[in-house]
Amino acid sequence: MRGVSPHERRNPGSAGRGAAAAGGERCGSESLQVAAALREEGRLLGDTEVLGVVNALRSELVGTGPLEPLLAAPEVTDVLVTAPDEVWVDRGAGLERTAVTFADAAAVRRLAQRLAAVAGRRLDDARPWVDARLPDGTRLHAVLPPVAVGSTCLSLRVVRPRAFSLAELVAAGTVPPGGAELLRAMLDARLSYLVSGGTGSGKTTLLSTLLGLVGREERIVLAEDSAELRPDHPHVVRLETRPANQEGRGQVTLRDLVRQALRMRPDRLVVGEVRGPEVTDLLGALNTGHEGGCGTVHANTAGDVPARLEALGSTAGLDRAALHSQLAAALSV
After folding, report:
1. Which of 12, 30, 68, 325 could form a disulfide bond with 18, CB atoms 3.0-4.6 angstroms apart?
2. Chain-centroid distance, C-alpha 209
3. For the chain, which residues make up each domain, given as ranges?
4. Strands (E) located in the chain
5. What is the pLDDT of residues 63-111, one digit of tens each?
6. Where is this region: Disordered (predicted)?
7. Can you tell me the distance from the alpha carbon of 226 to that of 207, in angstroms, rounded to the nearest whole number?
8. How far apart are CA 180 and CA 167, in angstroms?
């Protein structure tokens, strides 16, 4: 099997559509070859049928196979494969099962390993899971059997190339009536805030939109575990964590990124998702003049946020009283 070149790792275009870019350049010659093969078998097909066969082959070999139509749909945020005949999507209203299927479990495994290679990661029996970002920003997670019982499990979270406008969120019902004015006032006052919610609730979507409303003269520095924020803003610096290599070296944590971000003259310091000891560095920064900082935190309700932050603070050795003191001074919303 052909290896993945450094260029393909850096610039395949997108999870499926870009991974097929090289194949697209050969579409004409492939069409002729397929047509010739079919004629030898005594079958005659028109140009449309031949192109359909070529596209299907290319999708299977260098694209995302049967998942391509799902990933291309603008309303889809997540594509989940739990078995060859169990493919689920989230279109913004919860998970729904699709009619999409793979030929067999081996086809799911091949796709997961190929996408991992595009992301520059290893996925095999010795390292049976991967968590990576594809070049277009799509978040990839995959687990191979026997760790995943029965079949390879594949999860793709689609990151759209642009953030929604505040008006679009209001129209969609994500922001309630009157909420837009409050959010604008919060940003104008440079208040520090956290966006909380459960998995798939739209925390990243809302935060991307809010950052797009920040003054154009301001510098935004993002620190993320996986680069998912897409603010519509002209001055954004993006920092992303990195796992350790095969020798256990070279890891860059979110806490490392927060500390580096503080040295980069941020007007707005943003932590994509606060999920560990970096909470103490963020609160420390907000308490030392970095107004307007923000981030997201996973909590099912607003009332659960203090307990969640207490748990995160404990990972950095911060006791409950000290954490509450810093929270009261650092966060406004």
Report:
1. 12
2. 16
3. 67-159, 166-330
4. 78-83, 86-90, 95-97, 129-133, 139-143, 153-157, 193-197, 220-224, 236-240, 268-271, 294-298
5. 688 898 999 898 899 999 999 999 999 998 889 999 999 999 999 999 9
6. 1-24
7. 15
8. 8
Which residues have C-beta within 8 Å of that of residue 17, sequence separation ≥ 6? 63, 68, 71, 72, 136
What pLDDT was estimated at residue 80?
Answer: 98
DSSP state of 226: S
Judge contact between 190 and 292, C-beta under 8 A.
yes
With a pLDDT cut of 70, the percent of the chain lying above it is 81
Verdict on whether the full-model pTM lies above 0.85: no
CATH architecture of 67-159: 2-Layer Sandwich (3.30)
E strands, 190-254, are 193-197, 220-224, 236-240
User: Each residue of 274-329: pLDDT tens digit?
Assistant: 988 988 888 888 887 789 999 999 998 888 998 999 999 998 888 888 888 888 88
Three-class secondary structure of residue 245 per DSSP = coil
Contact status, residue 242 vs residue 250, Cβ threshold 8 Å:
yes
- Give whole-number Cα distances, 56 to 30, 41, 77, 245, in Å: 12, 19, 23, 35
CB 235 within 8 A of CB 167: no
- Cα–Cα dist 181/260, whole Å: 33
Domain boundaries 166-330, CATH class: alpha beta
User: Do the beta carbons of residue 255 and residue 282 sit within 8 Å?
Assistant: no
Helix (H) / strand (E) containing 111:
helix 105-118
